Amino acid sequence: MAVIFVLFFLVSMALSARIRPSFNGTALSGTSNKHPFEPGPNTIFREEVPPSAAASGFPSAHGTELRTHDPSIIKVGSIYYSYSVGPSITIHQAFSLDGPWTEVGALLSGESVIKKGDRKAPWAANTIYINGRYYCYYSVSNSGCRDSAIGVASSAFPGPGEWTDHGLIIQSGTGEGSDVFPLNQSNTIDPNVFVDGDGTAYLNFGSFWTGLWQVPLEEELVTVKGLQDGTLDAVHLAAEPGKVWRSKLANSKAKTVSTSKTGSPICGDPTGGHPIEGGFMAYHAPYYYMWFSWGRCCEFKDPAMRSNGKEYRIRVGRSTSARGPFVDKQGIDLVDGGGETVYGSNGDVFAPGGQGILTDEFGDILYYHYLNSSVSYDFADARLGYNRLEYVDGWPVAVY
User: Fold this and answer.
1) DSSP 105-154
2) In terms of Cα–Cα distance, which of 1, 5, 8, 3 is closest to 303?
3) Residue 102 to residue 274: CA distance in whole angstroms
4) Would residue 277 show up in a list of annotated catalytic residues for this protein?
5) Residue 193: C-alpha distances to residues 134, 158, 199, 299 (Å)
6) 65-249+265-399, what's its fold?
7) Where is this site: Important for catalytic activity, responsible for pKa modulation of the active site Glu and correct orientation of both the proton donor and substrate?
8) How high is the mean pLDDT in each 10-residue block of the chain (400 residues)?
9) DSSP secondary structure string, 242-288?
10) pTM of the predicted structure, to 2 decimals
11) Which of 345, 294, 342, 293 is nearest to 60 (CA)?
12) Per-residue confidence (pLDDT) for residue 87, from 0 to 100
């Protein structure tokens, strides 16, 4: 029987905001970015992006049957745990990344205690283990808006049933602290916590708008350091300054657009689509790596939305400090639009993103969600995939 491979070529237009119900450690000190975000002299404005999947050179994915978005995976003993969007944050477990994966319950006992956004099914969980306890950082928001918040729950066990929801640690758009820089111009979703070798913990977050940011956490890991006393030490990690697609608000004649105290729109960005999100920091000596998803994450039923070359792909920058600056191979700062593409669409792999890094006895693993183009472009059909990483001259390369 002949097997027909349908090649999808990249070139057109997409939406200006992420549409989804979902997700997603050692350092020196750096300096804070205290200025509003503006394109700099080294800013890259991308008119077109990467070659067709056929010419990508990316390896095939280790595909699985676990349907997920923005997974967070940890390994405890011989068991893998995956935390992802779903009622009260869904937990799956398996004895192999390849599966089979079994749903074992929910992380929270009900809705998030944060009274914002989609409380019933928080997005982008990021689970870590430190000091004998598991911490799961999560987001609540609404699609296309930055009226968002990040919360945290903790437990002595990785499975369901024993978690305490500590609630809000940081928010943007509306609410206490949302008028503090850079929360007054960013989107507090897609949390990722990186713990330094000296025990210092950093919260990385951000989606669209002004990109990815970092703030330090207190030692107890459930409070942002300096937020209450005006000494917040925020660092700008990465951004997409170029208008990758036109905003729906650009020609809007609507008389009212919800804005923050600084005038920054809360729902929709009239400056256009700046598709960068899903930051994940990892360390592989001697560098710190800032991974992120670039492009459109979801809703590809319309062929025009999947043929324009602006779908998700996984990019990275590196630094000698967890506080940056992070640069790509050309030395371009991620804040100026830099970023090295490590994995993207190829074969039946479409729009990989929402990534994380897992380290086992054999090395580093890049895991992510993706759409299998031979099966479906439906949002609900996104599934877990992964690839091993090799490092060439200090730069990660995806291999099968």
Assistant:
1) EESSSSS-SS-SS--SS-EEEEEEEETTEEEEEEEE--TTB---EEEEEE
2) 8
3) 36
4) yes
5) 12, 17, 12, 28
6) Tachylectin-2; Chain A (2.115.10)
7) 190
8) 34 36 30 35 38 67 97 98 97 98 98 95 97 98 93 98 96 96 96 96 96 97 96 96 62 35 69 89 99 93 85 98 98 97 96 98 98 93 98 98
9) S--B--TTTT---S---B-TTS-BSBS-TT-B--EEEEEEEEETTEE
10) 0.84
11) 345
12) 95
Tell me, yes or no, if 103 is annotated catalytic.
no
Share above pLDDT 90 across residues of the chain, in percent, rounded to a whole number: 73
pLDDT given for residue 341 in this prediction: 98
Give the domain ranges of the chain: 65-249+265-399
133: number of Cβ within 10 Å: 13
- Contact criterion met (CB below 8 Å) for 234 and 184: no
Q: Among all chains, which residue has been given the structure tokens 């043929």?
A: 307
Long-range contacts of 369-373, Cβ-Cβ distance < 8 Å, separation of 24 or more: 369/68, 369/69, 369/70, 369/71, 370/61, 370/63, 370/312, 371/300, 372/63, 372/348, 373/6, 373/8, 373/348, 373/349
CA–CA gap between residue 292 and residue 334 (Å, rounded): 10
pLDDT tens, residue by residue, 324-353: 999 999 999 999 999 999 999 999 999 999
**Which of 118, 190, 269, 277 is an active site residue?**
277
Question: pLDDT tens, 159-206?
Answer: 998 999 999 999 999 999 999 999 999 999 999 999 999 999 999 999
**Which one, of 131, 13, 24, 18, lies nearest residue 369 by Cα?**
24
